[in-house]
């Protein structure tokens, strides 16, 4: 069953340098218990997409078009008061920096109990019990004791676990995770990824995992959507996209992963720089950096095309034919 449908989402920033189309016609859907990996370079529009879903984009940015259908309800049209009731309750977000979630001068129990009682009329004891259960789910040892601690008494990995626990407190239908493990060491990262995957499977929570790391997506996501210059250029089942990438940009991202190629082989570098989002080139935005571009790519912007095996590509010359073979 569909939890989220994003249709032609457009989020623009109105600056002195021009209109920055940070998200420019994004479409995707997410089902119960499904994990979608949203990947791309910094500045591709991944985080703005996540913030747009929760209506957290600050001026000079704003959602200027499209629909964000959560359980059939268009979040883009909801009054601010209704959106506040959903945010942190049915829809939650995990930020890259856990201190964006945690107040450094309040104990963990205060913050978690308030997060419960803001959306659910329960006693303080019931809210505390729910907080202990949430901390236990994310692997916090002695959760009842750790509730009395302050954020600075936790390590970075433990703070991130607490932030994830807060996101889970009210049993949300959808969680948007904005690179929450980027600053963590590899061991803690792998533990949190495994726990998040189990939680999505056990509770039916849909998850959008925003990252630039395709290695993380490979072990976590059911489907992957690759973003470039505010648009999704490829989407499909994770194994399909990572095994036979169809868009030249996806090929470049995969080639830049250490250990992806042969031992001693130089990493593949995507030439050039990401485009200025306020002054995008005509045609395909990736054409100036693409090894497969021709004159048509430089003048005519490609639309999204459906391929077999639930694959979609935005490219005039996809490297994957219909049927999934290069």
UniProtKB/TrEMBL annotation:
* Any one GO molecular-function label of the UniProt entry: ATP binding
Any Pfam family: ABC_tran
Q: Which InterPro entries match?
A: AAA+_ATPase, ABC_Ni/Peptide_Import, ABC_transporter-like_ATP-bd, ABC_transporter-like_CS, Oligopep_ABC_C, P-loop_NTPase
Alphabetical GO biological process terms: peptide transport; transmembrane transport
| Top-level division of the source organism's lineage | Bacteria
What family name appears in the similarity comment?
A: Belongs to the ABC transporter superfamily.
Gene3D superfamilies named among the record's database cross-references: P-loop containing nucleotide triphosphate hydrolases (3.40.50.300)
Topology class, membrane = Peripheral membrane protein
| Family matches, as SMART domains | AAA (SM00382)
In this chain the ABC transporter domain maps to 4-254
A GO CC annotation recorded here is: plasma membrane
Q: Which UniProt keywords apply?
A: ATP-binding, Cell membrane, Membrane, Nucleotide-binding, Transport
Q: What is this protein called?
A: ABC transporter ATP-binding protein
Where is this protein localized, as stated in its record? Answer: Cell inner membrane
Report the principal subcellular site.
membrane
Q: Which PROSITE patterns match?
A: ABC_TRANSPORTER_1, ABC_TRANSPORTER_2
Q: Which SUPFAM superfamilies match?
A: P-loop containing nucleoside triphosphate hydrolases
Q: Which residues form a coiled coil?
A: none
């Amino acid at each position: 069953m569909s939890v989220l449908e994003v249709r032609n989402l457009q989020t623009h920033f109105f600056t002195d340098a021009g209109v920055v189309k940070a998200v420019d016609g994004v479409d995707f859907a997410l089902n119960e218990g499904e994990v979608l990996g949203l990947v791309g370079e910094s500045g591709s529009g991944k985080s703005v997409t996540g913030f747009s879903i929760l209506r957290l984009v600050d001026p000079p940015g704003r959602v200027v078009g499209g629909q964000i259908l959560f359980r059939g309800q268009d979040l883009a049209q909801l009054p601010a008061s209704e959106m506040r009731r959903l945010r942190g309750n049915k829809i939650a977000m995990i930020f890259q920096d856990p201190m964006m979630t945690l107040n450094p001068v309040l104990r963990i129990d205060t913050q978690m109990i308030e997060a419960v009682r803001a959306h659910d009329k329960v006693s303080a004891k019931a809210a505390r019990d729910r907080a202990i259960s949430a901390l236990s789910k994310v692997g916090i040892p002695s959760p009842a004791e750790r509730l009395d601690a302050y954020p600075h008494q936790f390590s970075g990995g433990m703070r991130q676990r607490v932030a994830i626990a807060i996101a889970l407190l009210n049993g949300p239908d959808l969680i948007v995770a904005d690179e929450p493990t980027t600053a963590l060491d590899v061991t803690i990262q792998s533990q949190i990824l495994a726990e998040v995957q189990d939680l999505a499977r056990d509770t039916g929570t849909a998850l959008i995992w925003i990252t630039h790391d395709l290695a993380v997506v490979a072990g976590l996501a059911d489907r992957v959507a690759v973003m470039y210059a505010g648009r999704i250029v490829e989407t499909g089942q994770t194994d399909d996209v990572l095994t036979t990438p169809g868009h030249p940009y996806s090929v470049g991202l995969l080639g830049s992963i250490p250990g992806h190629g042969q031992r001693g082989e130089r990493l593949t570098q995507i030439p050039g720089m990401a485009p200025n989002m306020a002054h995008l080139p005509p045609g395909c935005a990736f054409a100036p950096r693409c090894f497969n571009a021709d004159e048509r790519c430089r003048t005519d912007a490609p639309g999204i095309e459906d391929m077999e095996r639930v694959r979609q590509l935005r490219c005039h010359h996809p490297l994957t034919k219909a049927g999934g073979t290069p």
